Amino acid sequence: MHLPSTIGELKSSEFNEARIQHRFVKDEMRENLISKLERRRTVFPGIVGYDDSVVPQIVNALLSRHNFILLGLRGQAKSRILRELTSLLDEQMPAIEGCEINDNPYAPICKACKMLIADRGDQTSVTFVPRDRRYVEKLATPDVTIADLIGDLDPIKAARGGHLLSDELTIHYGLLPRANRGVFAINELPDLASKVQVGLFNIMQEGDVQIKGYPIRMPLDVMLVFSANPEDYTARGKIITPLKDRIGSEINTHYPATVEEGIEITKQEAWLGRNGSKLIVPDFIVRAVEQIAFEARSDQRVDKRSGVSQRLPISAIENVISNAERRGLITRESDIVPRISDIYAALPSITGKLELEYEGEQRGAANVARDLVKTAVGKTFGEYFEHVDCSRIVAWFNDGNAIRTSDTDSAELCLKNFQHVDGLIDAAISSGLSRKSDSQALVAVCELILEGLHAHKKISRSEERGYAAAKTETRGQSFESFSRSRKIN
Q: Which fold has domain 7-252?
């Protein structure tokens, strides 16, 4: 498709429709949103778990032509939603070529563009701006200034052009004017200094602002969207009342409501592929990793105000697979099947995602993370083995037997050890999670059983991953002595 290159060509093209000539960006997004809804298209592809909560509220805000703010804890897809707003813009937008603020060829607001059109008329060059370049994002920090967002006077421009400093032609535009006819997003709004917030609502409401004491009139056409953590209102800053009053809609985000929703997000976002290797990730491994985040969000030792980001299970499952990949390189096994021991090996991807309360700090991040993994695996075990009889396994350990595994043991070595545990292989096969011929998956299921029984306090385990009877020490012999005298190789 040939796009017009001058205003004259633009006027004789499809871009000369009355609805396009003087259409504001909020009207443009509203029209495209209505078109999507009428065609039953997904408004925000890739956003999971918000279909009945957040998305309808955003749709209402857009239909109302509101500026809006997303309030939520970290890792709730706030920034991603804001970036998805570009899908509601036209694919191409005509603008005066060379203009810093994407001025409308039919209704310019920039003094330089007005002078250019007055001089060249229909021969004024135009360009077309793709939708992704119409989105400008700024992370708010206390050092952000009015000059960063709105602009500043440029003495060099004034000297070269022979202009007064108060002349609009001497302005070096900030991020907000450069987002003209597009979407301007500010993340972590409360971190913005109060005086800068004042400049924001002034430009939102009246379209004017003072730069270095000179009043500047800029009737910008911008969709303003924000994000914030509710706790930041008091922890690091606050949104000033006049600005908050001018934000049309306040929308609260949330974490996945169910483990299934969390799994869907994690599978979508995590890097699960490994080149040159046959990777099979059991469903119970993915579920156990996801359950860790759910346990952390309800654990009293984890700070609720900070939240537990959805990035935790995403990073954790990537680390779990990498540990399984490392084992494959050590044992020279071509197939990669993650096990429960790989989840414990992935603790470094968990501890950094937890903000702890005093009790958690006293226990230590690593110990809290291990407790969370244990609880998560225990719940996962309960879902898959509710109707599987594991009494023979428990009895074998109660008879004084013990076994030790390692996350670097080959599947062959693990199976050789597991075959000594009465009923373990049978329980793994009867669960339906693995076939007897699939040694890698069978080992993973056996580890799930052992760790699940430990989580339910049916058997005990040392930090060196040795399993023995529960309450071994009350029987007059410690687990360590069992490990030394009865270790199965």
A: Rossmann fold (3.40.50)
Q: What is the mean pLDDT of residues 187-205?
A: 84
Residue pair 100/177 in contact (Cβ under 8 Å)? The answer is: yes
In the chain, where are the structural domains located?
Answer: 7-252, 256-363, 385-489
Say if residues 288 and 237 touch (Cβ distance below 8 Å).
Answer: no
CB 456 within 8 A of CB 394: no
Q: Kindly tell me the burial class for residue 373, based on how many C-beta atoms sit within 10 Å of its own C-beta (0-12, 13-18, 19 or more).
A: buried
Q: Do the Cβ atoms of 67 and 176 come closer than 8 Å? A: no
Distance CA 178, CA 56 (A): 30
* Structure confidence at residue 204 as a pLDDT band (50, 70, 90): confident
Element at 414 (helix H, strand E):
helix 411-418
Predicted local confidence at residue 113, as pLDDT: 92
Nearest to 385 by CA among 422, 440, 434: 434
- The model's pLDDT over 477-487, given as tens digits with 9 standing for 90+, comes to 444 433 333 34
Name the band, by pLDDT with cuts 50, 70 and 90, for residue 256.
very high
**What sign results for the dihedral spanned by CA atoms 284, 286, 289, 291?**
negative
What pLDDT shows up at residue 276? 67
Question: Structurally, what CATH architecture does the domain formed by 256-363 represent?
Answer: Orthogonal Bundle (1.10)
- 376 — pLDDT class (breaks 50, 70, 90): very high
How crowded is residue 3: how many other Cβ atoms within 10 Å of its Cβ? 13
* Cα distance between residue 51 and residue 42, in whole Å: 9
Q: CA–CA separation, 27 vs 88, rounded Å?
A: 10
> Rg of the chain's alpha carbons, rounded to an integer?
30
Alpha helix locations (H) across 259-310?
259-269, 283-298
- Phi, psi for 228 (deg, rounded to 5): -160, 150
Other CB atoms within a 10 A radius of the CB of residue 111 amount to 12
State whether the Cα torsion 132-135-141-146 is positive or negative.
positive
Torsion of CA 82, 83, 84, 90, to 10 degrees: 110
Task: Name the nearest CA neighbour of 415 among 440, 449, 451.
Answer: 440
Q: What is the token pair recorded at 329?
A: 């390189």
Alpha-carbon dihedral sign for residues 269, 339, 468, 458:
positive
Task: Report which listed range, 70-74, 279-283, 290-294, 464-468, is most confident.
Answer: 290-294
**In terms of C-beta density within 10 A (0-12 exposed, 13-18 middle, 19 or more buried), how is residue 255 classed?**
buried
pTM for this entry: 0.87
Give the residue, 289 or 234, on which the prediction is more confident. 289
Alpha carbons 482 and 468: distance in angstroms, whole number: 8
Report the C-alpha gap between 449 and 442 in whole angstroms: 11
Residue with tokens 């592809």: 45
Query: Does residue 104 contact residue 74 with C-beta atoms inside 8 Å?
Result: no
CB atoms within 10 A of CB 347: 18
Classify residue 220 by its DSSP letter.
-
